[in-house]
């Protein structure tokens, strides 16, 4: 009699990152039928998966992913229902696998579509170099995108420390069943842990995040390198912003002078480090970091933080769930685990240099782009010990570009706030936001925003992004400036008096 285990899952896109189910890389039919195998049943999402019993089953992200793993293999199961995300299954497959165009890092050995079990299946297999800073790295991949219909796909993705030879056999033993039962809800996924900072930083954290009231910050592009333009704006507003955004990338050294300017002016800096080289497209950057190419750079950066010594918010690789940044998994094997490995590598580098004046801010975009389950924002969460503050970001972009629309503050933040207050125990802040003036009345938007934001008491800080996005021809596309018009400055001045 066969031994059969049945589980109920909660997952919403089926990508199975799976290596070699056990220490061997191939299984005979008899081995798949043996007492060593179990069956995982996901009734709400309509599938069964057979797997070796020694694998651990992780259901910590119901509705997003189910993971099976052992020492050599990792299986992530996702199910995608496009519902407007892309036009059809072919678009999902083509768009989601664009990373293989980077032939420098990805060596593809299979890329074909065939019929398996009466269904169209796209099979992709590739490998990359092993990475120095990833323990028990799994550089061999295979995915099978199983088309149920034009709007529904199950993806089986295999990730292994050994070459993969049984990907098609695994697909043959994957079975669809009639969906039944309610889809599970996703509850709290994080736990707030004690700070590991010096006393000065802990006190800044307490005042900013553990007290009542909302504190306002600003991105003014010349500050804190120079403060005169910001001071002139604040004089008009009769308000001083307590937090400034400073963007840096791998093109730049540690910004000691700018941080000291901010400190001398009694400002907290949200130092946003984006691991890219501005003006130099580099889809290899995450592999480069984990292979050790930037070891000296991050060590020196940590030494700069240690020397500066004063508190700051350190926002690393924000909006990682957007395909416009090279640190999105869209560019590297559809593998968000590598984002988390980079985060933990940089964190530990800072710790090794004695950095204790940093509050770590984790900050996805409000929309996953692409909106596929393997790119869900929560898959980029590096772990409770590595995150002190959770950031929200959503812009009223206006309608300059096709497909964009004018959105109210509530339309953007009500669903986001509902999710984040349920998911996270860490304090919440809006790390950057704004409204364009293209497509609606910006002054009225600001008036309504100041009313609506009071409905979200767990938001402890909000930073207005006062600048302009330009299109490819250097024309203003999204006009986000706070002082774009005298009427707008006056609206802000009136509302900000309440926060003095």
Automatic annotation (TrEMBL):
Keywords assigned: Glycosidase, Hydrolase, Membrane, Transmembrane, Transmembrane helix
Claim: Membrane is one of the keywords in the record: yes
Top-rank lineage group of the source organism: Bacteria
Protein family per UniProt: Belongs to the glycosyl hydrolase 26 family.
Record domain GH26: where: 199-492
Catalytic machinery residues: 319 (proton donor), 432 (nucleophile)
Source organism of this protein record: Paenibacillus tianmuensis
Record protein name field: Glycosyl hydrolase family 26
InterPro entries hit by this protein: GH, GH26_dom, Glyco_hydro_26
Gene Ontology BP, a term: substituted mannan metabolic process
One Pfam family per UniProt: Glyco_hydro_26
GO MF term set: mannan endo-1,4-beta-mannosidase activity
TM annotation in the entry: 7-27
């Amino acid at each position: 009699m066969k031994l059969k285990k049945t589980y109920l899952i909660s997952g919403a896109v089926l990508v199975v990152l799976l290596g070699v189910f056990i220490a061997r890389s191939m299984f005979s039919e008899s081995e798949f039928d043996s007492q060593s195998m179990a069956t995982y049943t996901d009734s709400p999402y309509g599938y069964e998966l057979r797997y070796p019993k020694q694998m651990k089953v992780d259901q910590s992200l119901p509705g997003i992913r189910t993971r099976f793993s052992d020492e050599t293999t990792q299986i992530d199961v996702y199910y995608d229902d496009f519902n407007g995300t892309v036009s059809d299954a072919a678009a999902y497959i083509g768009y989601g696998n664009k990373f293989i165009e980077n032939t420098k890092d990805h060596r593809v050995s299979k890329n074909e579509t065939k019929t398996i079990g009466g269904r169209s299946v796209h099979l992709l297999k590739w490998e990359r170099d092993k990475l120095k800073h990833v323990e028990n790295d799994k550089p061999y991949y295979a995915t099978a995108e199983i088309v149920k219909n034009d709007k529904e796909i199950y993806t089986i993705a295999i990730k292994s420390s050994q070459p993969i030879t049984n990907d098609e056999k695994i697909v043959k033993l994957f079975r669809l069943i009639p969906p039944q039962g309610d889809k599970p809800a996703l509850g709290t996924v994080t736990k707030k842990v004690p700070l590991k900072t010096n006393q000065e930083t802990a006190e800044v954290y307490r005042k900013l995040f553990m007290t009542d009231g909302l504190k306002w910050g600003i991105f003014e592009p010349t500050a804190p390198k120079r403060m005169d333009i910001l001071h002139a704006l604040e004089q008009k507003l009769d308000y001083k912003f307590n937090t400034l955004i400073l963007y840096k990338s791998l093109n730049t050294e540690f910004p000691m002078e700018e941080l000291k300017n901010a400190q001398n002016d009694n400002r907290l800096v949200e130092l946003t480090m984006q691991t890219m080289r501005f003006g130099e497209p580099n889809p290899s950057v995450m592999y480069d970091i984990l292979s050790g190419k930037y070891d000296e750079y991050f060590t020196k950066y940590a030494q700069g933080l240690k020397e500066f010594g004063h508190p700051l918010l350190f926002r690393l690789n924000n909006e990682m769930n957007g395909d416009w940044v090279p640190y999105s998994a869209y560019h590297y094997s559809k593998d968000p685990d590598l984002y988390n490995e980079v985060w933990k590598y940089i964190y530990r580098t800072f710790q090794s240099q004695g950095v204790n004046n940093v509050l770590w801010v984790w900050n996805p975009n409000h929309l996953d782009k692409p909106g596929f389950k393997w790119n869900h924002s929560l898959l980029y969460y590096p772990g409770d010990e590595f995150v002190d503050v959770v950031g929200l970001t959503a812009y009223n972009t206006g309608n300059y570009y096709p497909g964009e629309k004018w959105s109210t503050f509530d339309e953007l933040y009500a669903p986001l706030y509902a999710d984040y207050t349920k998911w996270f125990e860490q304090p919440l802040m809006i790390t950057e936001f704004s409204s364009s003036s293209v497509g609606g009345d910006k002054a009225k938007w600001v008036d309504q925003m100041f009313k609506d934001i009071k409905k979200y008491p767990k938001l402890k800080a909000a930073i207005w992004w006062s600048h302009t996005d330009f299109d490819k021809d250097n024309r203003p596309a999204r006009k986000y400036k706070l002082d774009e018009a005298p009427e707008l400055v006056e609206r802000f001045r009136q509302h900000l008096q309440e926060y003095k």
